[in-house]
Amino acid sequence: MVALFSKKVLKHASCIIAPTKKVQSLLNSYGVNQNVHVVPTGIYLKPFLADFHPDQKQSLLKKLDIPEDHQILLFVGRLAKEKNIEEVLDYFSKLNTPKLTLLIVGDGPHRNDLQQYSSYLSIEKKVVFTGLIKPENIVSYYQIADLFVSASNSETQGLTYIEALACGLPAICKNDPCLENVISNGKNGWKYNDYTDFQKAVHSLLTNPLLYQKFSLNAKEGAIRDYSSKTFAIKMEGIYAHTIAEYYLKTEYVF
Question: What pTM does this model have?
């Protein structure tokens, strides 16, 4: 039904904008034959680039009951089955790394199941569930973390990945087409396929300060360059101008 509806509606469009190649491929599989431009959705990045005062960090860590000497893996998003957060919990439990906390920011219908699974894995004291956080306060949680992690294969773009990168957080996420050109292996994070990949990525970044600093800088610079609202506006303006020009050429419109 989605394929039929999409094809019927989009056949009237002069051009189509998709946020990722994953969505572009999906539309093509529906039989949408129009030109589909891939333009990642822009984000107003200024709040994510702001400096976070050490006192603010200490205050939030205290509120969350996370020791100041702990490193933090962070997931941000809706706690739903399709996010595959069980895999993150499972892999985290296997790390068996002291002074490491998994911080899960968000709420959703799957939260109770995830908390029970944490208890089953005997990691409930190392995992913090924050519940729903106001959007304007989310940036603080990115700022106290060390790595962003996700095992989801259900994203069409994954804006939380870009928010994390803008905050200088290297990302370790399950390999997925939506991450093409977002996470570059060995540059701003790692796309993993299994636990071995995940473990190596976490260990290399959390035990090598110089490597971490390099990844963090790449993450922030890449987010500003490719995913800011300004970059989005420039790309969209170009597509609109090109589409309008093509229309007038086809209709032989004379000014």
Answer: 0.88
